[in-house]
Write a structure and sequence with these properties.
2 domains; five-stranded antiparallel beta sheet; 4 helices; 147 residues
Length: 147
Protein backbone atom coordinates (compact mmCIF):
# COMPACT_ATOMS: atom_id res chain seq x y z
CA UNK A 1 0.00 0.00 0.00
CA UNK A 2 1.21 3.48 -0.84
CA UNK A 3 2.26 5.11 2.47
CA UNK A 4 1.78 8.81 1.73
CA UNK A 5 0.08 10.62 4.65
CA UNK A 6 -2.28 12.58 2.37
CA UNK A 7 -3.22 9.41 0.50
CA UNK A 8 -3.97 7.55 3.74
CA UNK A 9 -6.10 10.48 5.00
CA UNK A 10 -7.97 10.46 1.70
CA UNK A 11 -8.58 6.71 1.97
CA UNK A 12 -9.80 7.17 5.54
CA UNK A 13 -12.32 9.81 4.46
CA UNK A 14 -13.55 7.69 1.55
CA UNK A 15 -13.83 4.64 3.82
CA UNK A 16 -15.85 6.67 6.32
CA UNK A 17 -18.21 7.88 3.59
CA UNK A 18 -18.64 4.36 2.25
CA UNK A 19 -19.35 3.09 5.75
CA UNK A 20 -21.93 5.83 6.36
CA UNK A 21 -23.80 5.19 3.10
CA UNK A 22 -23.63 1.42 3.65
CA UNK A 23 -25.14 1.72 7.12
CA UNK A 24 -27.90 3.97 5.78
CA UNK A 25 -28.65 1.52 2.95
CA UNK A 26 -28.69 -1.48 5.28
CA UNK A 27 -31.00 0.31 7.71
CA UNK A 28 -33.38 1.29 4.90
CA UNK A 29 -33.37 -2.31 3.64
CA UNK A 30 -34.07 -3.54 7.18
CA UNK A 31 -37.05 -1.19 7.44
CA UNK A 32 -38.31 -2.46 4.08
CA UNK A 33 -38.01 -6.11 5.14
CA UNK A 34 -39.65 -5.49 8.50
CA UNK A 35 -42.87 -4.39 6.78
CA UNK A 36 -43.86 -8.04 6.32
CA UNK A 37 -47.65 -8.02 6.79
CA UNK A 38 -50.54 -6.07 5.33
CA UNK A 39 -54.11 -5.25 6.24
CA UNK A 40 -56.89 -3.14 4.77
CA UNK A 41 -57.19 0.44 5.98
CA UNK A 42 -60.16 1.19 8.23
CA UNK A 43 -60.18 4.96 7.59
CA UNK A 44 -57.78 7.58 6.29
CA UNK A 45 -57.62 11.31 6.89
CA UNK A 46 -55.62 13.18 4.24
CA UNK A 47 -53.80 16.46 4.71
CA UNK A 48 -51.01 18.49 3.16
CA UNK A 49 -47.74 19.01 5.02
CA UNK A 50 -45.24 21.71 4.19
CA UNK A 51 -41.63 20.47 4.19
CA UNK A 52 -40.09 23.83 3.40
CA UNK A 53 -41.01 27.06 1.65
CA UNK A 54 -41.59 25.45 -1.77
CA UNK A 55 -42.18 21.75 -1.04
CA UNK A 56 -45.49 20.20 -0.04
CA UNK A 57 -46.28 16.52 0.41
CA UNK A 58 -49.33 14.45 1.21
CA UNK A 59 -49.80 13.16 4.75
CA UNK A 60 -52.11 10.29 5.66
CA UNK A 61 -53.33 9.45 9.16
CA UNK A 62 -54.94 6.00 9.17
CA UNK A 63 -56.26 3.20 11.35
CA UNK A 64 -56.13 -0.56 10.81
CA UNK A 65 -56.96 -3.70 12.75
CA UNK A 66 -54.53 -6.55 13.44
CA UNK A 67 -55.47 -9.54 15.63
CA UNK A 68 -58.51 -7.74 16.96
CA UNK A 69 -56.60 -4.67 18.11
CA UNK A 70 -56.80 -1.28 16.40
CA UNK A 71 -53.58 0.53 15.50
CA UNK A 72 -53.01 3.96 14.01
CA UNK A 73 -50.19 5.41 11.97
CA UNK A 74 -49.18 8.16 9.60
CA UNK A 75 -47.31 8.28 6.34
CA UNK A 76 -45.66 11.17 4.51
CA UNK A 77 -45.52 10.63 0.75
CA UNK A 78 -42.08 12.20 0.22
CA UNK A 79 -41.73 10.81 -3.30
CA UNK A 80 -44.67 12.91 -4.52
CA UNK A 81 -43.56 16.52 -4.03
CA UNK A 82 -45.77 19.47 -4.94
CA UNK A 83 -44.45 22.99 -5.41
CA UNK A 84 -47.50 24.78 -4.00
CA UNK A 85 -50.22 24.09 -1.47
CA UNK A 86 -53.12 24.19 -3.95
CA UNK A 87 -51.66 21.53 -6.24
CA UNK A 88 -51.11 19.25 -3.27
CA UNK A 89 -54.63 19.93 -2.01
CA UNK A 90 -56.08 19.05 -5.44
CA UNK A 91 -54.26 15.72 -5.41
CA UNK A 92 -56.13 14.64 -2.27
CA UNK A 93 -59.04 13.63 -4.52
CA UNK A 94 -56.78 11.25 -6.45
CA UNK A 95 -55.38 9.70 -3.27
CA UNK A 96 -58.86 9.23 -1.78
CA UNK A 97 -60.02 7.16 -4.76
CA UNK A 98 -57.33 4.50 -4.34
CA UNK A 99 -57.75 1.33 -2.28
CA UNK A 100 -54.99 1.43 0.30
CA UNK A 101 -53.27 -1.41 2.15
CA UNK A 102 -51.32 -0.82 5.32
CA UNK A 103 -47.91 -2.48 5.49
CA UNK A 104 -46.75 -3.19 9.01
CA UNK A 105 -44.39 -5.27 11.07
CA UNK A 106 -46.09 -8.41 12.36
CA UNK A 107 -43.90 -8.32 15.49
CA UNK A 108 -44.56 -4.62 16.19
CA UNK A 109 -47.70 -3.37 14.39
CA UNK A 110 -47.08 0.18 15.62
CA UNK A 111 -44.48 0.42 12.87
CA UNK A 112 -46.58 0.79 9.73
CA UNK A 113 -46.76 2.61 6.42
CA UNK A 114 -48.99 2.97 3.39
CA UNK A 115 -45.94 2.72 1.13
CA UNK A 116 -43.51 -0.14 0.84
CA UNK A 117 -40.71 1.03 -1.43
CA UNK A 118 -37.44 -0.86 -1.78
CA UNK A 119 -34.49 1.50 -1.13
CA UNK A 120 -32.99 0.93 -4.57
CA UNK A 121 -31.23 4.31 -4.80
CA UNK A 122 -29.51 3.85 -1.44
CA UNK A 123 -28.40 0.29 -2.26
CA UNK A 124 -27.02 1.28 -5.68
CA UNK A 125 -25.21 4.27 -4.17
CA UNK A 126 -23.60 2.07 -1.53
CA UNK A 127 -22.56 -0.52 -4.13
CA UNK A 128 -21.02 2.14 -6.40
CA UNK A 129 -19.14 3.62 -3.44
CA UNK A 130 -17.78 0.16 -2.56
CA UNK A 131 -16.50 -0.23 -6.14
CA UNK A 132 -14.81 3.18 -5.94
CA UNK A 133 -13.26 2.32 -2.57
CA UNK A 134 -11.89 -0.98 -3.90
CA UNK A 135 -10.51 0.88 -6.93
CA UNK A 136 -8.67 3.36 -4.69
CA UNK A 137 -7.19 0.57 -2.56
CA UNK A 138 -6.03 -1.27 -5.69
CA UNK A 139 -4.58 1.98 -7.01
CA UNK A 140 -2.63 2.41 -3.76
CA UNK A 141 -1.20 -1.10 -4.05
CA UNK A 142 -0.37 -0.58 -7.72
CA UNK A 143 1.49 2.67 -7.05
CA UNK A 144 3.41 1.06 -4.15
CA UNK A 145 4.57 -1.83 -6.35
CA UNK A 146 5.70 0.52 -9.15
CA UNK A 147 7.79 2.72 -6.90
Amino acid sequence: MYKNFVWLCFLSLVTGAVGWFTIKALYAAYLYVSLNASAPVENIQWSVEQLNEERFVMKANYNFVFKGQEYSGETLFKNDVYWNFWAAEDSIKVYQQKDWQVWFSSTSPRYSSLQKNFPLKECISAAVLWVILIYFFCLGYYVATRK
